[in-house]
Design a protein that fits this description.
Blueprint lengths: L1 H31 L10 E5 L14 E5 L9 E5 L6 E9 L4 E4 L15 E9 L2 H9 L1 H21 L1
Antiparallel strand pairs: 1-2, 2-6, 3-4, 3-6, 4-5
Amino acid sequence: MKTIVNGLKNLMIVFLLLILTFNLYSLYQSKSNDSRFPMILGYGYAVVASGSMKPTLSQGDLVIVHEETDYEKDDIITFIQEGDNRTTTHRVIEREAKHFITQGDANNAEDQPIVDEQIFGKVVVTLPLIGYIIQFVRSPAGLLVSISLFFLLFYLDTRRK
């Protein structure tokens, strides 16, 4: 039983450290490069903000996207609309010479056409409901809780030895 508890504690420490590291990296990228969508080795993440992609994706899902050189019909992509600061994750329903038409699976209308430069990447992994945790950790209160929890777990782990 002690081994399981220690294993879970170590897993929690690693998880918190990864989240904190990525959040600090994202903050650095957004300030230094004016990047609205920080990427590491061609990968980034977004939190699904609405039910527009139901049943494929739900609000609060975390999607991991990979920057591709080309996107095809039926790919689910994350992009930014012209003049909007929020990312959108929708399906490519039509590809034309210089632009793409996207639409949420649950939507009746298609989105405004987008071009390659507006696309951050293709969805390669979906983690249901993890986006809620990420959003909390990215908030000031969540960051404080995460840092406190990390140091508490680290302190308890070193105290036992």
